[in-house]
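FORM 12-B: Structure-to-Sequence Request
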């Protein structure tokens, strides 16, 4: 997985067709949900918000990619997996990053009180 810093993105859209799994959206499609609490959002909106926040956080921690690289060996395996946030933790390097990620993870909807 790679991340795009929403603060650095100029919203030109060039990267969108380059993503082989359609995982990139403009932040115009996310900005209106960022301030809403998760219990008011649909599942797809919660995932957009989660990944927007992950991009914001990890774009500051991970190095910039300045040249095209060979795809990861596991790219095809993960291509069609749903809820990739469950697999994101597998790529983290140290315990601090793992704990940071856990703070982003969406709440389990079965734990919500109505």
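FORM 12-B RESPONSE
SEQUENCE OUT:
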């Amino acid at each position: 997985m790679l991340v795009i810093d929403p603060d650095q993105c100029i919203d030109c859209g060039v990267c969108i067709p380059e993503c082989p799994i359609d995982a990139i959206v403009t932040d115009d499609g996310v900005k209106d949900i960022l301030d809403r609490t998760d219990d008011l959002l649909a599942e797809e909106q919660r995932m957009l918000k989660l990944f927007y926040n992950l991009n914001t956080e990890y774009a500051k921690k991970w190095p910039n990619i300045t040249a095209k690289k060979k795809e990861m060996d596991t790219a095809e395996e993960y291509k069609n997996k749903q809820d990739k946030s469950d697999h994101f933790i597998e790529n983290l390097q140290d315990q601090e990053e793992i704990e940071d990620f856990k703070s982003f993870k969406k709440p389990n909807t079965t734990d919500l009180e109505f």
